[in-house]
Prior knowledge:
The protein is mainly α. The chain has helices at 29-38, 41-59, 63-110.
Amino acid sequence: MKQYCDINICPFQTVIVRQPQQAAPSDYLAFAIIVTFCCCLPFGIVGIIKASEAKNRFASGDYDGAEESSESAKNWSIAGLVTGCIKLTLVIILNFVLAASAVNEADEYYN
């Protein structure tokens, strides 16, 4: 025996309301990994943690929290990049100063 259910008569109806899907915010994970390996380990690690947190928050439906973590991951990665560039610049300057000092001492030694 078949039962037919008219949309107006069925006693149990499931209504699914779908809201428009928001695009996932960028998590900057690749940027954080590059900063970790190339520039500044501590800032890069925090960037990786924040990037992972952004993915998890978006997956759980917390879009605002995902955006916040994404922005934080970007900021930590930029801070690591800037710190790494400053560190590299200081090392290059220090090498030039030490090389000039060594040349000067060698010149004085042989003269």
